[in-house]
Amino acid sequence: MDRIGIDTGGTFTDIAWISNGALKTAKVPSTPDNPARAVLNGIEKVGESFNLLCHGTTVGTNAILSRSGGMAGMVVSKGFADVLELGRGDRKNLYSLNPRRHVPLIERENIFEINLRLDKSGTAILSPGESEIEKIAEELKKTGMKSVAVGMIHSGQFPDEEISLGQKLSELTGLNVFTSSALTSYPREYERWSLASIAAYLSPVLDSYIRNLSGEIKSNFALMNSSGGLISGESANRNPAACVLSGPAGGAYAARLTGRGRVLALDMGGTSTDVTMITGNLPRTRESEIDGIPYPMPAMDIHTIGAGGGSIVKIDSGGMLKLGPGSAGADPGPACYGNGGPLTLTDIAMLSGRIVKSKFLGGKMSLDERLSERAFSEVCPDGMKREDFLEGVIELTKIHLVGALRKISVARGIDPSRSDKPFTLVPFGGAGAVFAVECARELGIREVIHPCAAGVYSAVGLLAAPISVEKERALLVQVDGSNEILNSVVENLKSDVEDELSEWGETGSTEFSVTCECRYVGQSHALEIELVNPEDLKIRYKKAYAERYTYLHSGTPVELVTVRVRGEIAAPPINFPELTNGNRNLESSKIATQEIFIDKNYVDCPVYDRYLLPVGERINGPGIIADDYSTVYLPPDCSASMNSSGHLEIDIE
């Protein structure tokens, strides 16, 4: 077996692999106290040898959100020790009476200044002596630092002095040292230094996690990085920040496997929901944040909200109904798990008839509806009808989900309901299709595709992800007259990418993509433009600028800020087996009748076993289609049919 994909979530850890040409899946409870244990449990479920473990993890994300990383220090240019604390002057919540500023990962007392300063042309204004470097190294060791970040002014464009200082500090301290310019060429020091602080802060945590896993498995090991490519454990240790947004990236790859060109992907698991818009190439951004800290590396453009199956349902202090962002997680889990958990969205789905108890986790996990009822009665306000409370939670859930989908589409000027450019909603994750069809109707989307193995679809996406390496260089030159230097830089970066990819020993040609970040001279923010031909870079930039902002700055020169080269070795194709009807028929697929809460009334509706549904025959809603790891609620005025790849195609009237 070539690959196994394992995606660690807040509630469950999902596993997918190909065995004898067939897609196999499994799901095990996550172990938040030791995430590696759930991964090893998943490998044990597979019971087969494999060559490469492709892993999406939330270890880095959780360490930042819970502030459980390692103690890190930082060395910066003299006079700039407050950069991380000051941040930017913009206010995220303009009308908040009590705005909360972000808290840097490295405390001010652990930031040391050094007499190293470059001007904008790269000339050293201040240069430290050896005694000064040795003194700072002693301070770093004495204060018990586990790792060190280094940030110098203008080092994004002129990295040599910063990298040399980092090497000296590493030799003197024996610590892992992360220079900002080695991580990114981003020209703005606050964002670049923030990335270095993330790398240093996560280094002890990620290094321990990788060593623990690598010591237990007998195969190659790759982590999904934030931009949607697999990197080695060694690469992750060289830049721990690369995997901060590893978790959701696999789902975006998986969403493309449905064959639709314009997709809104909705990945709803136990703890959170990730939404992505795909209109061709996978969307990436350089303006992500994690807990208020800028993340200037290319990352999948994914919007996340705290709404999932484990989201806690409660009445807040003002008497308002609230869903999430707090989650019951894997332990104790929802009330129906029987571990003393609170009322959650999973309990509401059960009480409204949207979950088939006998199919939950393949029938291997029992759910107690009486415990859901008890938790429901404790939260439902006195005097409120049961039906009104159920309806309220369902409507609030749809408001959260539709709001997230609108944020990545309508808020960016893209109407997913347009008949000439139709979108398809692709829900996955264990809870994705419980509310997805209703959300699609709210958005005016006419087609929903619930993919094969949807309950573990992010793990399937890991199987489809390429091995990748990205390199970049800051130039800050005008586009006019830059062809020669641009071509030279691209060739050098391609060579560096190929050298690093060759360490994998993988067969297959490398596919390169080259992008340039450009802006008008005097602007702060740039647009990323695909480099097809240096001769037409300026034309392509102006076209992209006009599409984004509807106007141009005629007469203003265009500046080339950064060049980035990405090399990929494609994954083996995933061929979903062609389904034939055989023993499948509509009559045998109908396994039960279940009451479903619809428009404040309970209605008897059919329950279908997805594994017995015949190909091509249409089912009319309302009804439930269930498999081992996910459930589809088919509302009235909708119909569904299974295609030969095992995907459910749902049409909305």
Would you give an account of this structure?
- There is one protein chain.
- The chain has 653 residues and is an alpha+beta fold.
- It has 4 domains: 3-64 and 208-306, Nucleotidyltransferase, domain 5; 68-201, 3-Layer(aba) Sandwich (Dna Topoisomerase Vi A Subunit, Chain: A, domain 2), CATH 3.40.1360; 311-397, no CATH class; 466-569, Dna Ligase, domain 1 (2-Layer Sandwich), CATH 3.30.1490.
- Helices cover 30% and strands 28% of the residues.
- The chain has 17 helices and 34 strands.
- The strands form 9 sheets. The chain has an 8-stranded mixed β-sheet, sandwiched between helices. Strands 3-2-1-4-11-12 form a 6-stranded mixed β-sheet. Strands 6-5-9-10 form a 4-stranded parallel β-sheet, with helices on both faces.
- A hairpin with a 5-residue loop joins strand 20 (311-315) and strand 21 (321-327).
- Helix 9 (246-255) packs across helix 14 (457-464) and helix 10 packs across helix 12.
- The longest helix is centred in the N-terminal third of the chain and has 28 residues, at 189-216.
- It starts with a strand and ends with a strand.
Write out key terms for the chains shown:
653 residues; alpha+beta; Nucleotidyltransferase, domain 5; Dna Topoisomerase Vi A Subunit, Chain: A, domain 2; 8-stranded mixed β-sheet; 6-stranded mixed β-sheet; 17 helices; 30% helix; 28% strand
Count of domains: 4
Separation of termini? Answer: 43 Å
Oligomer: single chain
CATH topology of the largest domain: Nucleotidyltransferase, domain 5
Strand order of the largest sheet: 19-14-13-22-23-34-33-30
What structural class results from the helix and strand content?
alpha+beta
* Strand percentage: 25-35%
CATH class of the largest domain: Alpha Beta
The biggest sheet amounts to: 8 strands, mixed
The count of β-strands is 34
**Poorly predicted sequence stretches spanning 5 or more consecutive residues:** none
Gyration radius, rounded: 26 Å
> From the coordinates shown, what is the CATH architecture of the largest domain?
2-Layer Sandwich
Shape: globular
Number of helices: 17
> Average pLDDT, to the nearest integer?
91
Instruction: Please identify which CATH superfamily of the largest domain we are dealing with.
Output: ATPase, nucleotide binding domain
Helix content: 25-40%
